[in-house]
Design goal:
By secondary structure, this protein is of the alpha+beta class. It starts with a strand and ends with a helix. This is Methylenetetrahydrofolate--tRNA-(uracil-5-)-methyltransferase TrmFO.
Length: 455
C-alpha cells in the first residue's frame, strides 16, 4: 500500500484523523501552516493547540451527550482523549485540560509515529488527485476559503466565536471570592472546589450590566455579519437580549454558598475555572467578549474579587468559517463534487473541541479504510458519533444549517420511555447504553486492521 493520506490542518480534528489513520496502517502527511503562517488566535506551532476554553465539558458518559462522546473516543483509542486524560485539571465533573502540555503531548506522539510526517506550509487549493482530509477549522486561511468557495459555488457561511479572558490567580482577592463547584459536584475535595466564585449583589450586578452595554466594542469589517453561535455568545450580546439574561446564564447564583457571608444569597456569581495545572491561571467561565481591550479591563475589574486583577490574556473575537455540509458532503464525509476530498472538524459545522476531534476520528478511519480497500459500514446513528455525522451530512435542514454541539436532541427516541423533564434521567441512560453497544459493535467490524494492516 503506497497511497498516502494528506491531512490539511493540525488542530483537534486533523491530529485525531492522522492518529487513527496511521494506527490503521496508512502513511499520513499533516500539512500545517503554523508557525510559518499564523492566525489571530494561535500562539504556537503545536498541533492541537487550544485557543478558546480549556474545557472538554462534561465527562459524564451516562447522562450527558458530550461525556458519551468522550467514552466513544476513548473506546476507539483516540489520541486527543488520551492526551486530555494525561493532563486533566480538576473541574467539578467536567474534563478541563492543562492546555500547553496537552498540545505538546499530541505533537510529540504524532511526530514520533513511524507513519506520520508533518509538513509546515499553507495549502491554498483543493487537489484533484490523492486522498485528502481538510480539517482547517474555523480559522481557515482566506486563500483556501476562496478555493472552497469556488468549488462549492456557495456563499461562505460564518459565525463569530469569542475568546474568554484569563486572569492571574495571585491577583484575585480571596477575601471576597471562594472556591466551590456548583452544588458541590465532584467525587473528590479538589473536584468539589474546582471553581473560583465572585459574588455580586443586585446593585453591583445592575452597574455591571450598564457598563457592559456602554463599553466600546470591536467593529466588524464591511460585509461581515454577526451571526453568533448561541453556545458561545459574547457576554455583551447576552446583556443586550435582556438585563436578566446573564443572571440566568453564566452568572447564575444557584448551587453556591458564599462562606464569607453564608446567610446572604448572591444576586449573581461570576465563576472562574483553573486554566493550568499549576493553578496560576483562571479563565472567566462563559465570558467570551468582543469589547475592546481597554474596556475589558475596566468592566471586568468591577467584579468583586477582580478589582486588582491582572490578565494573562484578554478576550477577542474572530470569524469562524464552516461549510454547508448537508448539501456538500456524502455520508462518508466526502465532498460530493470531489470524492477524493473529505472534510472534518469544525469546518463541517460541528461546534466544540470534542465534536471536532470526533469528526476527525471518523474521517481518519473512513479514509484509511478506503485506502486499504476495506470500506467501513455506515457509522451507527444511535451512537454519539453517528448522531453527529448524520446531522451534518443530511439530518440538518440545509437552509438553516448552523454549528451544533452534540446533544440528545440529535438521538433517535428510545421506544417505551416517557418524555419531559421527569423521565429525562432514564431516557438519557437509555440513550447512552444503546449508543455504547452500537459503537462497540461498529468498532468490532474494523478489527481486520489489526491483522491486515501493512507493517
Amino acid at each position: 500500500m503506497t497511497q498516502k493520506l494528506h491531512i490539511v490542518g493540525g488542530g483537534m480534528a486533523g491530529s485525531e484523523a492522522a492518529w487513527q489513520a496511521a494506527e490503521m496502517g496508512v502513511d499520513v502527511v499533516i500539512h500545517e501552516m503554523r508557525p510559518q503562517t499564523g492566525t489571530f488566535a494561535h500562539q504556537t506551532g503545536n498541533l492541537a493547540e487550544m485557543v478558546c476554553s480549556n474545557s472538554f465539558r462534561s465527562d459524564d458518559d451516562e447522562q450527558n451527550a458530550v461525556g458519551l462522546l468522550h467514552w466513544e473516543m476513548r473506546a476507539a483509542n483516540g489520541l486527543i482523549m488520551a492526551s486530555a486524560d494525561a493532563h486533566r485539571l480538576p473541574a467539578g465533573g467536567a474534563l478541563a485540560v492543562d492546555r500547553e502540555p496537552f498540545a505538546e503531548t499530541v505533537t510529540a506522539r504524532l511526530k514520533a509515529h513511524p507513519r506520520v510526517s508533518v509538513s509546515h506550509e499553507e495549502v491554498t487549493e483543493l487537489p484533484d488527485q490523492g486522498h485528502w482530509i481538510f480539517a482547517t477549522g474555523p480559522l481557515t486561511s482566506p486563500a483556501l476559503g476562496q478555493a472552497i468557495q469556488r468549488e462549492t459555488g456557495a456563499e461562505a457561511l460564518a459565525f463569530f466565536d469569542a475568546i474568554a479572558p484569563i486572569v492571574y490567580a495571585d491577583t484575585i482577592d480571596m477575601s471576597k471570592a471562594w472556591m466551590q463547584s456548583r452544588y458541590d459536584k465532584g467525587e473528590t475535595e479538589e473536584e468539589r472546589t474546582a471553581y473560583l466564585n465572585c459574588p455580586m449583589d443586585r446593585d453591583q450586578y445592575e452597574a455591571f450590566i450598564d457598563a457592559l452595554l456602554a463599553a466600546d466594542k470591536t467593529e466588524f469589517h464591511e460585509g461581515e455579519t454577526a451571526g453568533y453561535f448561541d453556545g458561545c455568545l459574547p457576554i455583551e450580546v447576552m446583556a443586550e437580549r435582556g438585563r436578566e439574561t446573564l443572571r440566568h446564564g453564566p452568572m447564575k447564583p444557584v448551587g453556591l454558598t458564599n462562606p464569607h457571608q453564608p446567610d446572604v444569597k448572591p444576586y449573581a456569581v461570576v465563576q472562574l475555572r483553573r486554566d493550568n495545572a499549576l493553578g496560576t491561571l483562571f479563565n472567566i467561565v462563559g465570558f467570551q467578549t468582543k469589547m475592546k481591550y481597554g474596556a475589558q479591563t475596566e468592566v471586568f475589574r468591577m467584579i468583586p474579587g477582580l478589582e486588582n486583577a491582572s490578565f494573562a490574556r484578554l478576550g477577542g473575537i474572530h470569524r469562524n468559517t464552516f461549510i454547508n455540509s448537508p448539501t456538500l458532503l456524502d455520508a462518508q464525509m466526502r465532498l460530493k463534487s470531489r470524492p477524493n476530498i473529505r472534510f472534518a472538524g469544525q469546518i463541517t459545522g460541528v461546534e466544540g473541541y470534542v465534536e471536532s476531534a470526533a469528526m476527525g476520528l471518523l474521517a481518519g478511519r473512513l479514509a484509511a479504510a478506503e485506502i486499504l480497500g476495506h470500506p467501513l459500514p455506515p457509522v451507527p446513528q444511535d451512537s454519539a458519533m453517528g448522531a453527529l455525522i448524520h446531522h451534518i451530512t443530511g439530518g440538518a435542514e440545509a437552509k438553516t444549517f448552523q454549528p451544533m454541539n452534540v446533544n440528545f436532541g440529535l438521538f433517535r427516541p428510545v421506544d417505551g420511555l416517557k418524555g419531559g423533564r421527569r423521565g429525562r434521567k432514564d431516557r438519557y441512560k437509555a440513550y447512552t447504553d444503546r449508543a455504547k453497544a452500537a459503537w462497540q459493535a461498529w468498532l468490532a467490524q474494523a478489527d481486520w486492521t489489526q491483522d491486515a494492516a501493512p507493517a
